[in-house]
Design a protein that fits this description.
406 residues; single chain; alpha/beta; five-stranded mixed beta sheet
């Protein structure tokens, strides 16, 4: 498809990497737009659309404005893309090669960076564009290392650097690096520790919290900010995370994870010995003795009973009552599938009798054999099963819907 002649797209981007968006007024979205619209008018182009991305890094490939522009470029809706500089378009060398030197010429799209004098119609400028791309990527790499060093220094100094305060606390309005007790949530945290020390397991604590209608941390924060919560149910992972966080004992615990690289959103969970913990930085919600007792009990119960292998139906069994996932519980030959939602709240799902693991296995093996007329390995059976929906027994019989991957 040939691009529409005489039409241009304007792309503007601004992010926190641009000196916190304060000093260079010339970098603002408004000024970028005015500069590029004026350039388009002076050179006889009509503007198809102005695409903007604010608070997105030049290395981010998930920018909504950026990706919408690329889709329109592929559809031939304009013949020119205008940006203030090449770094506004991207700071990723791989994207420079992919689009400026690869797909744009195929689509018949010309890229112009007004202040850089970058023009993909100029074949002699390819090396300059590549050098610009490398410089921009090096800039982000250096910036990432500098930011990481500053944040680590703050962590080691006992400053709280997360965007939101830990559940049970609030940020000091006069010093956002300091935590103050948020009493309504702190009461819940203290109760969770008390229940656990009394012998309640995480599953029972979850049911108690949900049956009492107490919003979980994410919902509590949403309500505090005037937003509708996405979930109203606690889960075992949330309770366990609260029980294992030493910040509740008054020690600032940070740095549990680290990004793999400045180009990736993926994070790597660090071993405990690499966490940054600064003692005595704020008011504790539980005593050190109680926190230590909770850690001792968590350690005793941390051994998994499954031998480290993935069961052939793990993650594939669903409750026909509420639609929630059914989890495997028990040990040895006495293992069962039970509704996970019921474990959180019997109000959310009244539940159904547990499904013995051996019964589910045998049904799958029998039906798979009827299809294939041969015995299959656990791995082959797991690959064949997409999902199983389990319903409560009726008249002594239990209905199971099996969806296969063929």
């Amino acid at each position: 498809m040939l691009p529409r002649k005489g039409w241009a797209a304007v792309y503007c981007r601004l992010s926190k990497e641009d000196e916190e968006k304060t000093a260079p007024e010339s970098e603002s979205i408004r000024n970028q737009r005015e500069l590029l619209l004026r350039w388009a008018e002076e050179h006889g182009y009509r503007v198809y659309r102005v695409y903007t991305d604010e608070d997105y890094s030049g290395i981010d490939r998930a920018r909504p404005g950026f990706n919408a522009m690329l889709m329109d470029a592929e559809q031939g809706r304009f013949e020119v893309i205008l940006a203030k500089t090449q770094s506004r378009f991207t700071r990723d060398m791989e994207l420079v090669e992919r689009y400026l030197h690869g797909l744009f010429p195929e689509w018949g799209v010309r890229f112009i960076a007004v202040l850089d004098h970058v023009d993909t119609y100029d074949p002699a400028g390819k090396k300059a564009r590549q050098i610009n791309g490398l410089i921009n990527e090096w800039y982000l790499e250096d910036l990432s290392e500098n930011v990481r060093a500053v944040l680590d220094h703050k962590r080691h100094s006992g400053c709280y650097i997360a965007s939101f305060a830990l559940y049970g606390y609030r940020k000091d309005p006069d010093n956002h690096s300091r935590l103050l007790v948020d009493e309504p949530a702190a009461v819940v945290v203290r109760q969770i520790f008390a229940w656990y020390l009394e012998g309640c397991g995480t599953a029972k604590i979850v049911r108690l919290l949900n049956d009492a209608g107490i919003p979980p941390p994410s919902a509590y924060r949403a309500i505090q900010n005037g937003h509708p919560p996405k979930t109203q149910l606690w889960g075992k992972a949330t309770v366990r995370r609260i029980l294992s966080t030493s910040t509740y004992a008054g020690d600032m615990e940070q740095g549990r994870v680290r990004k793999l690289s400045y180009k990736s959103k993926r994070t790597l969970r660090l071993p405990r010995e690499e966490w940054i913990v600064v003692p005595g930085t704020h008011t504790p919600l539980v005593s050190r003795a109680d926190f230590a007792a909770v850690q001792a009990r968590l350690a005793r119960q941390s051994t998994a009973g499954g031998g480290g292998t993935v069961h052939l139906l793990a993650g594939k069994v669903w409750c026909g009552v509420c639609g929630g996932r059914m989890e495997l519980t028990g040990s040895g030959v006495r293992r069962y599938f039970r509704c996970r939602t019921t474990q959180k709240s019997r109000i959310a799902c009244p539940g159904q009798p547990y499904l013995p693991m051996t019964d589910a296995e045998q049904i799958i093996k029998d039906k798979a054999y009827n299809y294939t007329k041969r015995q299959l390995s656990q791995r082959q059976l797991r690959a064949m099963v997409d999902e199983i929906i389990v319903y409560p027994p009726e008249a002594g019989r239990r209905r199971m819907e099996i969806h296969w991957n063929f």
